[in-house]
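Design request, C-alpha cells follow.
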C-alpha cells in the first residue's frame, strides 16, 4: 500500500500543484485582477513595511521552534539519541518534501532518517502519529481559548461550528485514549505501516509537546497577522479580533490541508481557509484576502527554504571541511552548555548534557599501585558494546571524553568504544591514561583508535597519558610491578613515532603526587622535560571510593605540595611559548588548577563553586552513574540498564538531591577533571586562564 501511495503522490502531487498554478494564472487571476488593483490603490497609503518585516521575523521564529515538539517526542519515546543539530537539520530538509513531491514523502523521509539512526519503523511511525495527535490537541486548546473572544459576525456560521467541533475533537484527542488509538490506526494505515499500542506519556511530557506546538503556531499566526496589517488590514475595525483569528487560522488551515494529503504543502487549501476566516476584515472580501494569504505563503516558503538551505549548506561544509565544522560545532555547544549549567545551578534551567564525561571501561588492572587498590577487588560485570552504544546515544554531545579504569587498554573492544563515543558524543578531546605495561598492545590499539577517529570525528584530539610516579626503580616500587619504568619509556617512544604521522595525537605523561614521591617531585618534573612529550601534568593522590583507598593516608601535606608547585609552575610557564594553541590553553587550566589544589589542601573546603553532576559525569564500568569519582558509589544516581535510560537518571529526584548537596558545599575535593569544568564558570579563574594562555 505504501508503494502505491508513493507512486500516486510522486506524480499526482506535482501535477496537482502545476494544474492549480495554471488555473490560478489563466482563470482566477484575470477575474481577480480588477479587485486586487483597486485594493492596492486604496490601501497604498496604509501599507507598512515594518509590519511586513515583523511578519518575516515571526515566521522565522515560529519555524525555529517548530522541530521542538518533534525532538521532545523522540526523547520521551526513548528513541536512540541523535545529535540535536542533526535532528533539526533533517526536520527542515524533509519539511520541503511536503511540497515536492508531497506530504507523504516528508513523513517517509523522517521515518527513514530515524531508521538510519537506530529507531525501528514501528517506533518511528509511532513518533509521527504522536506528533500529529498533540498537534491536534494544541490546535483544540488554542481554538477553545480564542473562540470566546471572536465576534459571531466575524465568521460564517458554518465555519464557527466547524472550529468548535475541531476544538472539541482536539481536546478529546488528548483526554480520550480510545480516540487517540483510533486516530493512530487510521494515520498509520495512511502511512502504510502499523504502530504498537500507544505508549504512556506523562502529563509533564504532554504539556511540553502541546506547549511547543502552541508556541510555534502562535508565532506563525502572529506572522500572518502582521502580514495582513502590512497590507493595510484592518483599516477601521478592532485589530485584536484579526489577531485572534490569525493565531488560530494558521493551525486550523494546517488541519484542513492534512486531510488533503495529495495536495503538496496544502497550497490553496490553507490559503482559502485563512481567507475565509479573515474575509470580513478585508476590503475586497474573499478575493483580496486569498491573494494576501497566498503572498504570505510565498514568504513562508522562503523562510522554510532558508532553513532547509542552511541545513544543506552545513552538511556540504561538514563533508568538505569536517575538521573546521567539527571544531566550530564543539565551541558552540560548549558555550551553550556552560551557560545552561550556570542557570541550572541557580534553579533557572534543567541540567544540560555534561561537557566532561569520564567512563571507567574496566576495573581490571595489572598494576599493584600503593595509591590505588582497585586491583584487589573482584571485577564486576562490564557494560557490553550494545549497552555502551545506547548509553552514548542518550548522553549525546560532550566536549571532553575521558577513559578511565583499571587499565583501559585491557579491554579488547576499546577502539570500538572510542568509535561509538566519536559517533554519538563527538568530543573535541579524548583522553586515555595507561600504566604502560603493554607497549606493543598500546601502540597497536592507538593506531586503530586513530583510524576510527579519522572516519567518525575528524579533528578530534586524542591524548594518551602514561603514568610516571618516579624514575627507574622508584616508579616500579610505587606501581608495584618490576620493569614498569622500562616499559613506560618503550611505550612513550612508540607513541611518539605514531605522533609523527598523526597531528591529532598528543602524548603526555602524568604523575600522581602522593606521600611516597612528593619529596622527589622536582626530580620527576625535570626528567619529564627530557622525554619530548607534549604535556606533563600531575595530580594529587586522593582517597576515593572508586579506588578503594579510603583511610590510606596517601595525600601529601599542603605545605610541601605548595612549595613544589611554585617551582613547577615557573618551569611550565617558561616552556609555553613553543606549545600548540590547545596545549597552551590546557596548560593554563592546569596552572590555575594547581593553585586551587594548594588552597584545598590547606582548608579542606570547596575553593570555587562545584558543578559536578551538571557539567561532569562519571560512568562506572558496571553502568553506575556518578557525579564524580570522589562521591562515587555513595553518590551514585542510578545504574543504566536495558530498561533504564541515562536521561531518566540524569533528571531524577535523586540526581537533583545530589546536586543540591554539592551546591551546599557538603563535599570538597581536588579532582582535576571536575576542577577544569568549575574554572570555566568561575569568572576570576577563567580570566586568569585566558591571561596565562595569551601571555605565557
Amino acid at each position: 500500500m505504501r508503494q502505491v501511495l508513493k507512486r500516486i503522490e510522486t506524480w499526482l502531487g506535482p501535477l496537482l500543484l502545476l494544474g492549480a498554478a495554471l488555473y490560478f494564472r489563466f482563470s482566477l487571476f484575470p477575474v481577480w485582477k480588477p479587485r486586487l488593483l483597486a485594493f492596492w490603490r486604496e490601501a497604498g497609503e496604509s501599507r507598512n513595511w515594518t509590519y511586513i518585516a515583523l511578519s518575516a521575523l515571526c515566521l522565522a521564529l515560529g519555524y525555529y521552534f517548530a522541530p521542538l515538539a518533534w525532538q521532545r517526542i523522540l526523547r520521551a519515546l526513548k528513541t536512540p539519541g541523535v545529535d540535536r543539530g542533526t535532528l533539526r537539520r533533517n526536520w527542515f530538509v524533509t519539511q520541503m518534501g511536503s511540497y515536492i513531491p508531497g506530504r507523504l514523502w516528508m513523513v517517509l523521509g523522517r521515518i527513514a532518517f530515524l531508521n538510519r539512526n537506530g529507531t525501528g519503523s514501528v517506533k518511528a511511525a509511532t513518533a509521527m502519529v504522536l506528533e500529529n495527535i498533540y498537534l491536534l490537541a494544541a490546535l483544540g486548546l488554542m481554538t477553545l481559548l480564542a473562540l470566546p473572544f471572536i465576534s459571531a459576525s466575524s465568521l460564517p456560521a458554518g465555519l464557527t461550528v466547524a472550529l468548535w467541533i475541531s476544538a472539541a475533537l482536539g481536546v478529546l484527542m488528548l483526554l480520550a485514549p480510545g480516540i487517540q488509538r483510533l486516530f493512530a490506526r487510521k494515520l498509520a494505515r495512511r502511512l502504510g505501516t502499523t504502530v504498537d499500542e500507544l505508549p504512556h506519556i506523562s502529563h509533564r511530557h504532554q504539556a511540553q509537546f502541546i506547549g511547543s506546538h502552541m508556541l510555534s503556531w502562535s508565532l506563525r499566526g502572529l506572522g500572518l497577522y502582521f502580514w495582513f496589517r502590512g497590507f493595510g488590514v484592518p483599516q477601521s475595525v478592532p485589530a485584536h479580533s484579526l489577531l485572534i483569528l490569525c493565531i488560530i487560522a494558521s493551525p486550523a488551515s494546517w488541519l484542513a490541508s492534512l486531510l488533503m494529503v495529495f495536495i503538496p504543502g496544502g497550497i490553496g487549501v490553507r490559503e482559502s481557509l485563512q481567507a475565509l476566516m479573515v474575509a470580513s476584515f478585508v476590503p475586497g472580501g474573499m478575493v483580496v484576502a486569498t491573494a494576501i494569504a497566498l503572498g504570505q505563503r510565498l514568504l513562508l516558503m522562503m523562510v522554510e527554504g532558508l532553513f532547509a538551505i542552511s541545513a544543506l549548506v552545513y552538511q556540504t561544509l561538514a563533508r568538505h571541511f569536517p575538521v573546521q565544522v567539527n571544531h566550530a560545532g564543539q565551541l558552540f555547544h560548549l558555550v551553550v552548555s556552560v551557560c545552561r549549567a550556570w542557570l541550572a545551578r541557580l534553579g533557572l534551567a534543567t541540567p544540560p548534557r555534561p561537557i566532561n564525561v569520564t567512563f571507567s571501561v574496566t576495573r581490571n588492572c595489572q598494576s599493584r599501585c600503593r595509591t590505588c587498590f582497585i586491583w584487589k577487588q573482584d571485577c564486576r560485570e562490564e557494560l557490553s558494546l550494545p549497552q555502551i552504544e545506547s548509553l552514548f546515544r542518550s548522553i549525546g554531545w560532550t566536549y571532553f571524553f575521558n577513559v578511565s579504569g583499571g587499565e583501559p587498554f585491557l579491554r579488547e573492544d576499546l577502539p570500538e568504544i572510542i568509535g561509538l563515543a566519536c559517533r554519538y558524543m563527538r568530543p573535541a578531546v579524548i583522553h586515555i591514561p595507561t600504566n604502560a605495561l603493554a607497549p606493543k598492545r598500546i601502540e597497536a590499539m592507538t593506531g586503530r583508535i586513530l583510524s576510527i577517529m579519522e572516519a567518525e570525528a575528524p579533528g578530534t584530539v586524542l591524548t594518551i597519558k602514561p603514568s610516571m610516579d618516579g624514575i627507574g626503580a622508584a616508579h616500579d616500587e610505587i606501581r608495584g610491578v618490576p620493569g614498569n619504568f622500562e616499559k613506560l619509556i618503550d611505550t612513550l617512544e612508540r607513541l611518539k613515532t605514531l605522533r609523527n604521522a598523526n597531528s591529532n595525537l598528543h602524548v603526555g605523561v602524568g604523575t600522581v603526587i602522593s606521600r611516597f614521591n612528593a619529596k622527589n617531585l622536582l626530580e620527576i618534573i625535570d626528567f619529564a622535560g627530557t622525554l619530548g612529550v607534549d604535556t606533563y601534568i600531575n595530580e594529587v593522590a586522593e582517597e576515593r571510593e572508586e579506588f578503594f583507598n579510603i583511610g590510606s593516608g596517601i595525600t601529601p601535606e599542603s605545605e610541601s605540595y605548595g612549595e613544589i608547585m611554585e617551582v613547577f609552575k615557573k618551569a611550565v610557564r617558561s616552556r609555553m611559548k613553543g606549545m600548540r594553541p590547545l596545549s597552551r590553553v590546557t596548560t593554563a587550566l592546569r596552572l590555575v588548577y594547581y593553585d586551587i589544589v594548594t588552597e584545598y589542601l590547606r582548608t579542606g573546603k570547596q575553593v570555587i563553586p562545584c558543578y559536578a553532576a551538571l557539567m561532569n559525569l562519571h560512568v562506572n564500568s558496571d553502568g553506575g552513574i556518578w557525579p564524580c569519582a570522589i562521591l562515587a558509589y555513595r553518590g551514585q544516581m542510578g545504574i543504566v540498564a536495558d530498561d533504564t535510560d541515562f536521561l531518566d537518571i540524569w533528571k531524577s529526584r535523586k540526581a537533583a538531591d545530589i546536586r543540591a548537596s554539592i551546591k551546599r558545599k557538603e563535599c570538597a575535593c581536588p579532582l582535576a577533571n571536575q576542577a577544569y569544568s568549575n574554572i570555566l564558570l568561575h569568572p576570576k579563574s577563567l580570566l586568569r586562564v585566558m591571561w596565562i594562555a595569551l601571555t605565557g
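Comment from the thread starter after seeing the answer: thanks! The CA atoms of residues 368 and 480 lie 4 Å apart.
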